[in-house]
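A quick aside before the break. I want you to see a complete sequence-to-structure record at least once, exactly as it would be stored in a machine-readable document. Don't worry about memorizing anything.
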Amino acid sequence: IYYDTLVIKILDSQKFTALVEDMTLQHRHSLEVSLHEAIDTELAGLKQRTEQIDQGIHAQVRQEIDLVKQMLKVNSDKVTKENENLREVNRQEVDKLKDNLALLEAQLHNLANAPSGRSTTNQEVEGEANDNPQVQSLTTGLVTLTSRLGHLESKLPQVKSQIESCCNNKPDLRVELESRLEQILSNFSSPAVQTVTSLFVDREDFQADRQNIDLQLNMLRDSMIEKVKSESDSMNTKIEELRTALKERKNEVKDEIEPASDLAQTLRQSEYVEEIVKAALAKYDADKTGLFDFALESAGGSILSTRCTESYEGSSAVLSVMGVPIWWETNNPRSILQPGMAPGQCWAFRGSTGAVVVKLSATIIVKAVSIEHISLRSTPDGQISSAPKAMTLSGINGEDIFPLANFTYEKSGDPVQTFSFQSQRKLDTVELNVLSNHGHPDYTCIYRFRVHGDPAEDDKIH
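That is the input. The structure line, written in tokens, reads:
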């Protein structure tokens, strides 16, 4: 085996070049697919991280809202409790003052109605009051209590107004919540604001990051394409170098290779010719067609009818005894079902049209028929004008006759000509109709008629 020659032929082959190009395209396609998969994976991860950040922000905001609600509730409860305490203190103070006032009035009334030995005038009473320390003390306490009572009564409307204002003007939860959120968001030192700021970016930063990612992806794509292109160019360069080196090597060993190559070529041609000859001989041994003939008489085929076709009687060999003919050879329609192919061993019928009905050796699905006539070289004048030309084949099933194929026997073709067609009918009887011949005015000859096909499943003969 001359490996150099083999390698040169492989490299010069268009199939090898196409294979290398196809492998390069496949490698490039696989790289592009990997790039797209990496981009899709990165985008999916970015989307997932964004969703997680959104969920975290929502949870933070909900916690802040719940905290504000709780604080508002505590403040509201505290204000309500303080209002109730203030109201209770005021009520207790007023009750206490009322009790002191009632006590002082009772003491004053007792002093005014106290029993005495003589009647006194106002001046005398005042004189006694001035002289009595207890009366002076009571009078002073009464004046003080009266002053305090007047002061408290003057403040009572203001206290009532504050209580009513406090009870009637409870803080609006929504307004307080919005105010609280505004305070939280405006306070950059708030933990929630710091968390949001650390997790999210503004639109400009997001667009910048996105453009940066797109730029990186484009750079990666360009680098991968450039890499594939460089690898392809490198591979092509190496192939060209290898091809050049092999061509040089081919020129160096050409004188040594050519004789051996010619010998190998001759041997291969001889082997090829031998195979062809063997195949031709095997086909010739298989009835010249390589197909089984279901019309062969020795295999069970038979002639059922020739319709109205008249056989042509010509001169033939005669066997006589003492001048008396006792046997002479005649060719009847059975000749077309027998293997003899000597000139004259045929069925001849008058004119250019005729018909014959053949019973097959088995029920088959008819697939083809073969018509055989002697070769041009087997005739003295090199003409076969008595050979049939246009023919039709019909199938017979009981009383039904249906066409199967139309065909023409070419006199310039092979002696055995096979005509194939498509059919699915199971038949055991066929009819051959000859419509014309190749110009003979008196008769037409058929040397051999074969029928080929596939046996029916229920009628296998071997």
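Two observations worth writing down. The first strand starts at residue 302 and ends at 305. Residues 368 and 419 are 5 Å apart (CA to CA). We'll return to this after the break.
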